[in-house]
Amino acid sequence: xxxxxxxxxxxxxxxxxxxAVLAVLEPLGNPFAFTEESAGLGALEAHGDPLPEAxxxxxxxxxxxxxxxxxxxxxxxxxxxxxxxxxAFSLYANVRPCRTIVPGRFSDVDLVVVRENLEGLYxxxxxxxxxxxxxxxxxxxxxxxxxxxxxxxxxYAFDYAVKHGRRTVTVVHKANILKVLTGVFLxxxxxxxxxxxxxxxxxxxxxxxxxxxxxxDPSRYDVIVxxxxxxxILSDLxxxxxxxxGFAPGANxxxxxxIFEAVHGSAPDIAGQGKANPVALMLAAGxxxxxxxxxxxxxxxxxxxxxxxxxxxxxxxxxxxxSTSDFGKAVAQAIRAx
Length: 338
Ligand code: NAI
Ligand code: MG
Known about the structure:
Elements: E1 3-8, H1 14-25, E2 32-37, H2 41-47, H3 53-62, E3 64-67, H4 81-88, E4 93-99, E5 110-116, E6 120-131, E7 134-144, H5 147-163, E8 168-173, H6 183-194, E9 201-206, H7 207-216, E10 223-226, H8 228-241, E11 249-253, E12 258-262, H9 279-291, H10 295-310, H11 324-337
Parallel strand pairs: 1-2, 1-3, 3-12, 5-10, 8-9, 8-10
Antiparallel strand pairs: 4-5, 4-11, 6-7, 11-12
The chain binds 1,4-dihydronicotinamide adenine dinucleotide (NAI) and magnesium ion.
1,4-dihydronicotinamide adenine dinucleotide is lined by residues 13, 69-72, 82, 245-246, 261, 264-270, 276-277, 280, 317.
């Protein structure tokens, strides 16, 4: 039986990589019955709204979505639709597994970043302060972390560790400087860890030191749990350890819905050229299969991606010549053959 889900193609390279994902879901028997809806810059141009009500209504119904990247204007213009979607469905956990597929500087990276997805400096409470004639003399942002949300995300990370047989959760913070904003996160991590004593160990790391250690020796890390902005930055960093943004999937998980996407954005610099690497969104579809209990299909998909790459079919970001759609066809072929 097919599982109802919402599909958002997104902006920039979105439509190209979504097509490649649909091509690899086909030989798995099209596990999802997708309803297509729009969001992002494309939706703004077509419907006058970057997040149309029909899109929200669809996700409310399916509780499950696969989403291509959405363009957010920098500096001014509309607020990030990604952030609005996370808020609309209380998708509090952003889970970003990072595993080596193509050995590069490291051959065995296997870690997961669990990012708090709703609070911190992402709450968008910003304003300018005028000084004399300059209305924009000072930029101010207010961030907050509620104790309850800190507890919820840390518990999510520990439960995730138990479920996936992982041994250590590292809480990444900056409580030496932001003693309150990230101190509350660290306090809750210490409190939650007690309940997992003997099963999963708690480790504590300050974010800047963590960044350095990740680059030097990622094998020191297993599950990382951190606040919103640090998680955003570190998850791009860890993507760089496994071949770049083309390999990093992300799941936005809430109690009532889940949205799966690539960590990367709409890559306007290569959009429309058939150059984009669709692996990140394919892996996101893999996480979506895991989420609905289709573990076998998820495994088949991941194995086919690895086989395709080690067989030499690669997109330009990792030095290959395959187009986005060629790569999709090759993975589909590998699934059929596998
Ligand atoms: P980006 O991730 O789109 O691109 C950064 C660099 O990585 C570019 O050189 C791009 O060509 C390359 N890249 C990204 N994905 C790739 C792929 N699959 N294959 C090959 N190369 C790839 O980040 P950027 O340029 O900062 O943002 C562009 C837009 O995307 C912005 O409007 C931003 O707000 C939005 N964005 C959306 C996200 C989402 O929908 N979840 C996440 C991050 C950014
Ligand atoms: Mg990001």
